[in-house]
What we know:
This protein is of the alpha/beta class and about 400 residues long. It has a single domain (about 10-25, about 60-410), classed as Rossmann fold (3-Layer(aba) Sandwich). It has 10 helices and 16 strands. It has helices spanning about 10-15, 125-130, 150-155, 160-170, 170-175, 195-205, 210-230, 240-250, 360-365, 395-410, and strands at about 60-70, 70-75, 80, 85-90, 100-105, 135-140, 155, 210, 235-240, 255-260, 270-275, 280-285, 315, 325-330, 345-350, 375. It has an 8-stranded mixed sheet, with helices on both faces. Strands 2-3 form a two-stranded antiparallel ribbon. A hairpin with a 6-residue loop joins strand 11 and strand 12. Helix 1 (about 10-15) crosses helix 7 (about 210-230) and helix 7 (about 210-230) crosses helix 8 (about 240-250). The chain is globular.
Amino acid sequence: MAVRGIANGALAALLAAHGAIMAAAPAGAQEGAPPQPPGQGSAPASSPASAPATGASEPVTRAGYFYIGGRYQKLGDKTVMVGQMFVQSRAPVRITQPYPVVMVHGLAQTGVNFLATADGRPGWVQRFVEKGYRVYVVDQVGRGRSGTNPEVYGPYDRLGTRSLEKTYTAPEVYDLFPQAKLHTRWPGGAGVQGNPGFDQFFASQVPFLANGQQTEELVDPALVALLEKIGPAILITHGQSALFGWAVSDARPDLVKAHVTVEPNGPPFFDVQFRGGKEFWEKSGDGRARAYGLTRMPLTFDPPVKAPEDLAVVQQAKAADGHIRCWLQADPARTLPNLAKVPAVVVTAEASFHATYDDCTVAFLAQAGARPDVIRLADQGLRGNGHMMMLEANSDAVADALAAWLASRVK
């Protein structure tokens, strides 16, 4: 299949292959074709048609969509499209922030995670629009509104209710890691089958590509193409999508004004699984889950890395209570000069499984010279959140914490 087995260094070739054949339609057809973004020229003016009506109780927002990337491919006697990514947009009538926000969902999810909460309240998109941002929300290539096609992309997988309950919505019920019992923020009580919020959340789950590296090979260039279209932007990634955020920040640090990585895919190098008890975790498999520490696809190290084996890995001898023992680079550590150019923050909830290992991601980045900021929600009085914090009872307050960091770091 044409999209599989791409060798190291193939990102540039993929970008070329994902040509602009899916340029957005004229603004009159699809509002998603953006005007010149703020910071790249004058801000889009409010037209009489888009201004709030006299006496309106709420300001009118502008919404639309477009597709980025994509190329035609023969599939038997049919011609199909490969690699296109769905992008949904929403903006206030008057944009006051200099850079747009791009929100990228995680494993088994789609962009609907950011549109509303599990119990029907407005989501992070609305919250950031109210703060004056134009917001773009994507569905990963090969998933959701971007289109699923096993004939093109190969095997798919999906998560069942038990997997989601254990780690995403009801960790307090299963108690598989030390922080699990602190989880209190899922709307309507424990997020298990029968809870209306969980049922709505589970209805939104979709199949995802079984091949993790292939996912990166497809999404990385599509996100770069999006930023090349809209101009410099802020990335907000969640879980799995941190893989793409690191890759795009590495490939085009000039286009990423900041990377807010909410509970990034990790820990560096290896996956772990949770089993409860005193020895609550173990390494999952012998092979490296992320060959380059943060990603499966190559990053720009200094000195250069020609193959994953060039990165020597050591494991910490000890860890703080409730944390795993991190895998880091052996000394002398190679640096990540491009990631060091992008302001980044790692956001971790109090009651998430990520509370056991996000500090490893922070340590890996600091070791490589990137030195991200850290937001531990509990330190800001936001207690009891799990991994799906954008859907939980205090989702607005969490969004406000991210926006406050952006206000202090993005100029």
